[in-house]
Amino acid sequence: MSQTRTHDYASDLSSEAQNRKLARIIPPGVYEGMQVAVNGTIAPGMLYTADGVRIEESGNVLPRWGSSWENMGVPPGDPTYGRRDLIVCQYLWEASVPPPAATYKVIAGVPAAAPEYPDIPENCIVLARCYMPAGAIVYTEVLQASPPETLVNCTPNADGTHSVIKGTLAAMRITFDVNTGLYAIYKRPAGTYADGGVIDWEDPILSLDDDGIVQLKALAAALAATTPVPGSSMVGVKAKTGANGLLSIANGTLQTALEKLVTDGDAGLKSLGDLISGHVNEDEDAHVAGAVSFADSQFSAETVAAALIELMTGFGKEHILPKDGNDSRHKTLHFADPLPGAPRLLMDVSGGTGYGRYRQYFDGVNFWMTVNAYIDAANSFKWTHDRGDLPALAIHMKYTTGQMYLAHKSSGAAWEDWNIMFDIQAAAIALNRDVDIDGDLRCDNVNTGTVAATAVNASSLRGSSVELGEGGPKILKGNTAPSDSPGVVAPQGSLYLRTTGQMYQKTGIEDTNWTERT
User: Fold this and answer.
1) Cis peptide upstream of residue 228 (ω within 30 degrees of 0)
2) Containing H/E element for 262?
3) How many angstroms separate the CA atoms of 512 and 506, rounded?
4) Cα separation of 368 and 87, whole Å?
5) Do 394 and 369 meet the contact criterion of CB atoms below 8 Å apart?
6) How far apart are CA 413 and CA 455, in angstroms?
7) Cα distance between residue 481 and residue 80, in whole Å
8) What is the dihedral of CA 37, 42, 46, 51, to 10 degrees?
9) For residues 513 and 504, is the Cβ–Cβ distance under 8 A?
10) Nearest Cα to 132, choosing from 112, 147, 152?
11) What is the 3-state secondary structure (H, E, C) of 391-439?
12) Distance CA 274, CA 271 (A)
């Protein structure tokens, strides 16, 4: 065993003894100034080395870089990747004359897509950690060195960790980051680690940022939280019993008290609801409707009885009242007037999943009865299939023109308009489809006589065409377009209905002179 004493009585003075006097008592690091600029310039300041030497600079200095530290300033950026550097003060005390001088160096990192800081060389105090972007000549990020940490029962390691000195005692670490303004105190209980064990500091027990105490803010947020744990579970309450003895809570948390109050209160309200229901349903305790006040802007009545009478009076305009028998059947149906430009739906009846829907529409001029078709208000009031795999049918009446027609639309077809099959107008009746006649055909003139048989080409009625008058126009049908070569033979003015629903008219003497009509 040996013992070293610094400055015993009457001992020789030496720089080594003077340095050792405060070494390991005052933590090494930057104590004043020494801020690094983006171009590497180091401001005046003072630091303390690990071997107890105080180094002070009264003016700006530049670090050196290069293979022999021959360059001043900072090395430029790599053309492709960014780089992380350390700006350090390197010093090792030696018993020499003249004494060694401290040097300032750029410890350059390796350029990479995700660069990391290089290792800290021996005998170096870090002044700043810097980032040099690709192709740049100055730093875009400079993290200044913070003041030395205060350590109790622990020592720093080269890799930035700390080791406990005596494991049976508690350890503490106090830090302040000048870049973020965060002050933090870390503590580990006694007996957590063996002697020399590396400390896992975990979260600080107390930390302050620009907005105050971090732990206090977290506690306030936890008290306000509803999930996953309600903040009320962190608040205690004393036992309390109501004056009537109907509601009470025990010592516990606010959340427990709330749950009991809600449960007991809900049960009590349910019991009260049962009492109200029994009161209303019992004849001897029931309220007289005429004695119950009533107020609603939709009624002029002031009692429940008067409101019921007022309601049934309006109901009776369209229905047979229950007191008149017949199970309140309809007398008539009254509909509101249609909106301008918007047909009003009067009736809508579902035919089930395998069928279309039956509807009635009215817009003030036109009346429709449809199956498997509806007016789509969201699509400019266009007609649309309910089910595209089924055809649609319609009966349309328009009183301004005295017109009524029967129309259809094929299944799956792109909808442009109805295909009119039968059209009754003031001047004529138009048949736009083939007519199959299985019985006799009579053409009477106001039931006073019969048109001569020669006026009807009876032989054509069961074929693929109908001839209107001897040698006159024909009505024909077929699968292909009649204008396709070689064309369909027919007199001018004849009509041809294609199976696709298209209609053509013979407009010339040639067999292919057919014009499509819409």
Assistant:
1) yes
2) helix 254-281
3) 8
4) 88
5) yes
6) 39
7) 71
8) 110
9) no
10) 112
11) CEEEEEEECCCCEEEEEEECCCCCCCCCEEEEEECCCCEEECCCCCCCC
12) 5
Put the strands of the sheet holding 141-144 in their side by side order.
Answer: 71-72, 64-65, 103-108, 83-90, 124-132, 141-144
Distance CA 360, CA 292 (A): 43
* Residues 6 or more apart whose Cβ sits within 8 Å of residue 3: none
Three-state helix/strand/coil letters over 271-290: HHHHHHHHHHHCHHHCCCHH
Among residues 378, 330, 397, 384, the alpha carbon closest in space to that of 357 is found at 384
Task: Look up the pTM and report it.
Answer: 0.47
User: 371-400 burial string, b = 16+ CB within 10 Å, else e?
Assistant: bbbbbeeeeeeebebbbeebbbbbebbeee
Q: Which residues contact 385 (CB under 8 A, 6 or more apart)?
A: 372, 373, 392, 409, 411, 415
Three-state SS string over 11-32 comes to CCCCHHHHHHHHECCECCEEEE
- The phi and psi torsions of 128 (rounded to 5 degrees) equal -165, 155
- Output the tens digit of pLDDT for each of the chain's 518 residues: 565 555 555 666 667 666 666 666 788 899 999 999 999 999 999 998 888 888 999 999 999 999 999 999 999 999 999 999 999 999 988 877 888 889 999 999 999 999 999 999 999 999 999 999 999 999 999 999 999 999 999 988 878 899 999 999 999 999 999 999 999 999 999 999 999 999 999 999 999 998 899 888 888 888 888 888 888 888 888 998 888 877 888 898 888 888 888 887 777 766 666 656 655 565 555 667 777 788 888 888 888 888 888 877 777 777 787 777 666 677 787 777 887 777 888 888 887 665 678 899 998 888 889 998 888 888 888 888 888 888 889 998 888 887 888 888 888 877 888 888 777 776 666 666 555 555 444 444 443 444 444 444 444 444 566 776 667 788 888 889 998 989 999 999 889 899 888 999 989 989 999 999 87
Q: Tally Cβ neighbours within 10 Å of residue 467.
A: 21
